[in-house]
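Below sits our specimen:

——
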Amino acid sequence: MAKCPVCDSRKGKRQCVVANGLVCSLCCGTIRKEESCLNCSYYQKPKRKYNEVPSFTTNQIHESAELMGYSDAIEGAFYAYDIENNKILKDADASKILELLIDKYHFKDAEINCDSPFLLAGFNFVDAVIGKELAGIDELVLVKVLSILNVVVKKLSKTGKEYMNVIHKYLGEKLASDTST
């Protein structure tokens, strides 16, 4: 077998259109480009690093009435969507919906790809609330709120519904106190 034309040290085993020959698997990963490698069987879309998205801290959220209001609006949307769906929303679902929202607002995806109709409907539900209740919010502020909520969901979740249980308890108590005044 011929040596990889990119590194000239390992054996080339993968046919590559970018290097115009057989490349080693290491070089295949380093020279890969979406526009030219999309149809290649070795191509994998890069995984997004949601933990590297800009974020507020939980302290910043709790110390700002404005940020707390944004957080409450988004969590209220999760609460309403969960109630509408007979309380079947799991923490992993909430996290995935938050990631889809981050895809839209941070990564600027023009089209949201999701195989689950339930999660896509959840995304649309929460996104509609954002459009209505948070109209005019600075996009970076929105991304930072979405990102810290995703961190909180992942931190709280142990068996699957801890975050959603907190949301139901918090918003249930808040709604009860709002109706009693």
